Amino acid sequence: MVAMHVALGVAVIAVCIGGAVLGFVSYRRGAGAGALVSNGLVLAQTMLIAQAAVGLLLLSDGRRAPDRLHYTYGALALGLALTPWFYAPGSGQKRLLWFAVTTLVAGALAVRAFMTGS
């Protein structure tokens, strides 16, 4: 289960950065969020939720991270990726920018969580 958590962590980082890049490129072009961009950003959020679920399963099994900051960074990454659903504008380019920025920062926090969990 720990190996799956590590592999999922690497995938989360890659998908968050990829989704954010897609979002920024789409924002710069003024094209709006198409299906690829929307699915990329939602995939990043879904993977963060799955990563947190696997982490909670590891905790329930009595396995703990060596550094307690790992839990803080993981929770902040998950919370930050979900904040645009509550605070972003209803539609338009600014909404896309909100999702892209928060996904990028969530990816950076996932990198930090990965570093403290190893």
Main sheet: strands, sense, barrel: none
Approximately what portion of the residues adopt beta-strand conformation? under 5%
Structural class: mainly alpha
pLDDT averaged over residues: 92
Give unreliable regions as ranges: none
Number of helices: 5
Query: What is the end-to-end distance?
Result: 14 Å
Form type: elongated
Instruction: Please tell me the total number of domains.
Output: 1
Assembly annotation: single chain
Radius of gyration: 15 Å
H/E element order: HHHHH
Q: Approximately how much helix is present in the residues? A: over 70%
Describe the structure.
This protein is an all-alpha fold and 118 residues long. It has one domain (2-117). It has five helices and no strands. The protein has helices at 2-29, 35-60, 69-82, 84-87, 93-117. α1 (2-29) runs antiparallel to α2 (35-60) and α3 runs antiparallel to α5 (93-117). It is elongated. The model has no long low-confidence stretch (mean pLDDT 92).
